């Protein structure tokens, strides 16, 4: 996403806020539970603990009636949050930084982390016995959307291995997120950067081979985080605490159970996904530590995110950790679980 495009959606979102109700949508359901609407940036096995929190009744036990909505794309998710269409967003922390850079009066606060690494994998069209990053030089590389965390983590990794993504390879970025797997299958690119379960699906069909993980290479990041506007958090502290408690319960359950057990719990949210593929995807994410073990966004992760954004040329100035991160609720959730 270019800076002009990003300014466009942020300006539009802020305009909507001016005419939207100043009251957050959090209210009571018929059974007395507090209603909370989550807007997730996509429906993904990468977010398994979120679905575990719903399916295992952790939100309900905390007195919450949670509604999941999917708003594809970080721009759409953030617009929904800023306009009070949703209460809580599950999206990359970079979006809160983009909003802050535009001088928002009601900043978006990161309060509970769900994933702590990039979730994409490098898939080669042909088998590679001993992959070396230098072999990417000169190839057609099908990447992710400019300005989004997958692409920034991808470019960060390439540069880490001495590859200039603008000069050393043919970086293809003009394909919509949802169409990237199909583009690769149709013959575009010698390598592609893919999320699960697409990587496992393509591998199972024998049409590609996972050769590396961008999550492993780019390190710990506040990659996908639950966030809300500061005004919402100030008005609904108990709700935010209950929400965070439920997420931490789910994180602990995921850490203690196998990929097979997790898949069986979350598959109702992925009705068209083969169980074996779901197990493969979840197993990959568990093994590389993608699922955060607790909801805390720590300062080292935040600084790594700023480094990734700086390397990608997407950061005007470094945003202080304490400005957009509140660990109060995560810390209390951890204490409550002991």
UniProtKB/TrEMBL annotation:
Species in which this protein is naturally found: Paenibacillus curdlanolyticus YK9
Protein name: ABC transporter substrate-binding protein
Keyword annotations: Signal
The keyword Signal belongs to this UniProt entry's keyword annotation: yes
Family to which the UniProt record says this protein belongs: Belongs to the bacterial solute-binding protein SsuA/TauA family.
Cross-referenced SUPFAM superfamilies: Periplasmic binding protein-like II
Entries under PROSITE patterns matching the protein: PROKAR_LIPOPROTEIN (PS51257)
Keyword match Transport: no
GO cellular component annotations of the record: periplasmic space
Signal peptide: 1-24
Main subcellular location: periplasm
Cross-referenced Pfam families: NMT1_2
Cellular localization per UniProt: Periplasm
């Amino acid at each position: 996403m270019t800076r002009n495009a990003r300014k466009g959606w942020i300006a539009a979102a802020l305009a909507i806020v001016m005419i939207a109700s100043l009251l957050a949508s959090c209210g009571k359901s018929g059974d007395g539970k507090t209603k909370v609407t989550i807007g997730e940036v996509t429906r993904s096995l990468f977010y398994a603990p979120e679905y575990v929190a719903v399916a295992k009744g952790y939100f309900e036990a905390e007195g919450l009636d949670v509604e999941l909505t999917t708003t594809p794309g970080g721009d759409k998710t953030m617009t929904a949050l800023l306009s009070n269409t949703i209460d809580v967003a599950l999206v990359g922390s970079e979006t809160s930084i983009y909003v802050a850079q535009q001088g928002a009066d009601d900043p978006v606060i990161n309060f509970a982390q769900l994933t702590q690494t990039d979730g994409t994998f490098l898939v080669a069209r042909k088998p590679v016995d001993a992959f070396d990053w230098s072999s990417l030089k000169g190839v057609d590389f099908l990447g992710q959307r400019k300005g989004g965390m997958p692409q920034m983590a991808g470019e960060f990794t390439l540069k880490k291995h001495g590859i200039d993504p603008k000069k050393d390879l043919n970086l293809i970025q003009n394909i919509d997120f949802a169409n990237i797997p199909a583009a690769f299958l149709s013959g575009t690119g010698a390598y592609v950067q893919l999320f699960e379960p697409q990587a496992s699906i393509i591998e199972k069909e024998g049409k590609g081979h996972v050769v590396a993980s961008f999550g492993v290479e780019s390190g710990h990041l506040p990659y996908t985080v639950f966030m809300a506007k500061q005004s919402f958090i100030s008005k609904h502290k108990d709700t935010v605490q209950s929400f965070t408690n439920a997420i931490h319960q789910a994180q602990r359950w995921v850490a203690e159970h196998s990929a097979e057990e997790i898949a069986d719990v979350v598959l109702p949210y992925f009705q068209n996904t083969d169980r074996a593929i779901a197990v493969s995807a979840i197993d990959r994410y568990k093994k590389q530590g993608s699922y955060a073990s607790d909801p805390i966004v720590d300062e080292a992760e935040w600084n790594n995110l700023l480094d990734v954004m700086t390397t990608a040329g997407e950061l005007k100035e470094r945003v202080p950790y304490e400005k957009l991160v509140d660990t109060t609720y995560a810390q209390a959730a951890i204490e409550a679980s002991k």
